[in-house]
Amino acid sequence: MTLKINYLDRQKDLSKNMALFLGKDAKISDFKGIFDDKINQKVLKFLKQNQKITKNKISSLNLEFDQKLIIILLATKNSSQEAEELGAKFYDYIKKNEINEIYLIGTIFSSVKKKIQLNEFLHGSELKAYEFNLYKSKKNKKEIYFNILKKKNFIDLKKKYKLEAILKGVNFTRDLVSEPGNILHPDEYAKRLIKLKKYGLKVTVYDQKKLKKLGCNALLGVGQGSIKGSYLVTIEWKGNKSKSKPLAFVGKGVCFDTGGYSLKPARFMEDMTYDMAGSAAVVGLMKTLALRKAKINAVGAVGLVENMVSGNAQRPGDIVKSYSGKTIEVLNTDAEGRLVLADALTFTEKKFKPKLMVDLATLTGAIIVSLGSEYAGLFSNDDKLSKQLINAGEIVDEKLWRMPLHKNFDKLMDSKNADMQNINYVGGAGSTTAAQFLQRFIINKTPWAHLDIAGMAFSKYAGALNTGGATGYGVRLLNQFVEDNYE
């Protein structure tokens, strides 16, 4: 099912279903000339019956035959986030009631213009309308039309184009995360990223041969059991003509994770196609920044591997030398994402000398135990960066909760046989010790934040702005972070 939005100067068919935004203080004069007196009286009667409503509510009145008037009764004031959630709720209502076309009456927006942001309302509807049905032989080809009557200039075109860019970035992320492992393996993933060049992004692919020459053995060790290649791909956006240091975003891209020889249980292993969601969020963000012509310099770096079992796969107890020169004892091959990020972080810091680095990864199951599917875990060496990220997350409802880092946790990652080990076998603090491991690869004290999004990237049930499955978490959060603090 596809949602299409049209902007019209007048209503072509008066027999169609209509939607009306109303504040509780609405008067007949607000919608004079749209409806006849009979309908006006129905609307006013409805308002009197709902005077005590303080939150947004969607209801319907039956008009002639099968014609409905959907009334969206607005709260006194709506934030952008509330407007988006109301738009998503409205889309659900329309879909559930099998309404294929509806006119949203714009004439009375002026009476409630401080209470709803139409751009964000429609953005919420579009986010909620996402479906991944690429591999269904029988697709639902029905289309839902939202016709916006623009009697006045109620659409902020600049904001409209920005939200369209965000939508495309989020949905690109969702598409990548939703793809099965036999389709989106590292080779195919790298090919898709090369296509981003058409948006003005500079894409550089480092294949196994180049990575071996660079000494990225931590990343390569994870992928050596697969018949597919391993890659580090950098995506650059130069939206600021100055030579200012870029903002850097780094993502874990394990296209499928069996756990290697530290094999995962068979139950729910099929979900491990989304172990590349951190990289997909970085890619979606970079696409968004390019589409909306963000006035910043930014770089995205993603490590793409497949963690498989074979005669050539990495063994528990192997020792590898990372790009940083530090050695790692691999005690558990299922703690592989941190190995990929170790090389990606040091490489990004050394090559691009960024102003800051934010990495995203579905890194630990422990973060789901801690925070469930309400917050992603935030670990950082910088208070200012942490606050900026948390504030951005609150605005777009992609929430973060800061977790601790401490030298005593760091000691738990020391190895007797190498510079460090990749897992803490003492027990507990699984997410924190993983973050402590990553922090060892921030060589030049660059402000850095690690977002463990294991509980947020994929949802078994529908959320406020998604229908279940890949959520696209991270794109809107980081776009807001960039917009609020660096543009």
Tell me what the structure shows:
- The protein is α/β, with parallel strands linked by helices.
- It has 2 domains: 2-155, Leucine Aminopeptidase, subunit E, domain 1; 162-486, Aminopeptidase (3-Layer(aba) Sandwich).
- It has 14 helices and 19 strands.
- The protein has an 8-stranded mixed sheet with strand order 7-8-10-9-13-17-14-15, with helices on both faces. Strands 1-6-5-2-4-3 form a 6-stranded mixed sheet, with helices on both faces.
- Strand 5 (101-105), helix 3 (118-128) and strand 6 (143-149) form a beta-alpha-beta unit.
- Helix 11 (383-396) crosses helix 14 (475-486).
- The mean pLDDT is 91.
Determine the number of helices (DSSP H or I, runs of at least 4 residues).
14
> What is the total number of structural domains?
2
Topology-level CATH name of the largest domain: Aminopeptidase
Portion in strands: 15-25%
Q: CATH first level of the largest domain: which class?
A: Alpha Beta
Report strand order across the widest sheet. Answer: 7-8-10-9-13-17-14-15
Query: Could you give the distance between the termini?
Result: 36 Å
Shape: elongated
CATH architecture of the largest domain: 3-Layer(aba) Sandwich
- How would you characterize the largest beta sheet? 8 strands, mixed
Number of strands: 19
Return residue spans where pLDDT drops below 50 for at least 5 consecutive residues: none
User: CATH H-level name of the largest domain... which superfamily?
Assistant: Zn peptidases
